Amino acid sequence: MKFSIYQGYEKYLQPGVIWAVIILGLFLLCAIFPAAISGNENSKRYKPFLYPTSDHILGTDDVGHDIFSVVVYSARVSLIIAFSAGFISVMIGLVIGLAAGYFSGIIDDLLMGLTDLVLIVPKIPVIILIAAITRPSILLLILVLGFLSWETTARMVRSRVMQVTGSGFILSSKTFGFSPGWIMTRDIVPVLYPVILPKLMIVVAGALISEASLSFLGLSDPTMNSWGKMIADAFSHGGFIRNMWWWYGPPAICIILMILACVRIGSIWETKQTERAFD
Fold this sequence. Notes:
This protein is 70% helix and 0% strand.
């Protein structure tokens, strides 16, 4: 009988999963080491509207920036916004879902009422209103996206918490007199990993879409480049009129690939944790 160190993990080593991890890894490298990857300083200027050449593989934009360098440097801002907003969203949803599911009663009613309120709030108009009052910035965008996208996480966490609060190990902890905070953090939160971690990847993917949409509407920080802002700049500065697909195409492809990678990793993560729970 032949054994392999990969036995039992074949499902998670499928080409789609491997490619998703590779794509995510490459984008993270771009975000961490942009200068080493791009080969061109992001601040240098060349002749505007150059076609792709060996010196500029994606040409230059309207002000003469090397587009490939801008794509690489933009990964940092896009990923910071996406992962930061995703983390804030999941943490808020986790806290509210935990409290609602564990305490139930009037606390559950109040928190779920707040969740329903956030669920029906139109996010884009709210962000437009905030942008009209304050100066757009990356921090503001992260906070707004994080604070307006936690409701589905809270509902999922609440549902799972209500399932486990009657379990033997939870009842034992209550019998020994442990505090609700101790029980929630030490006993319940580990059970929620199959819910939280895949949800984080989905929220990150959603934040990428939201960032691109808001940048296209001119609601992002005008001083910082992101993939969404690159598409907006191409639209407003002659890229679409000149059919410069090498300007708006690469950032759009990066957004799509990153979304697909996050969704795939989140999906396989959820599948693995679910199967482990039923082993």
